């Protein structure tokens, strides 16, 4: 097994390589505006650090969000392209699950990432491997009663201390955590879903109303 993991659902552009036993190389850079520019150089860097080649990869792991439309699709399209070019499976993992796994908490807790517009993407967890609720997008004040008293991780939780007073790191997901979680599930005989994006709201960019198509007849 040689898994290439990547995620662009948060401001972190993160890549890791897992050899079936552990992560052998990883890279993470935080820059919300340069996902497309940073991702492929990060893949090259990780492969070089591991002394491996892209054609040795046996599977791709990609974070499926939730996340902003533009950033999220960079990782998903890259993962799909690698999968098609190499003829290997592409496995989707919820980005929030990767953060929960990295947090390594025992009791109930919350993962919340920044959804912008004064909202968070969030879900509740029983432990680092067990999600209790489907990912959702809400204003922090609207979910205060549902997360009251619970520890929380993620950039969204750190942004809103009134709702998440027990917030702490990790702030962003790491591909290393995604790779370890995926490898663990695959080794246990589980199946990982196809990489379908978790778009919980429409993209910011919209076609203007009364848009006129100007093409020659």
From TrEMBL:
Cross-referenced CDD domains: ASKHA_NBD_TsaB
Record-linked Gene3D superfamilies: 3.30.420.40
The enzyme's E.C. designation: 2.3.1.234
One Gene Ontology term of the molecular function aspect: tRNA N(6)-L-threonylcarbamoyladenine synthase activity
Keywords, alphabetical: Acyltransferase, Transferase
Xref: SUPFAM superfamilies: Actin-like ATPase domain
Domain Gcp-like span(s) in chain numbering: 32-144
Pfam family, one: TsaD
InterPro entries: ATPase_NBD, Gcp-like_dom, T6A_TsaB
Protein's recorded name: tRNA (Adenosine(37)-N6)-threonylcarbamoyltransferase complex dimerization subunit type 1 TsaB
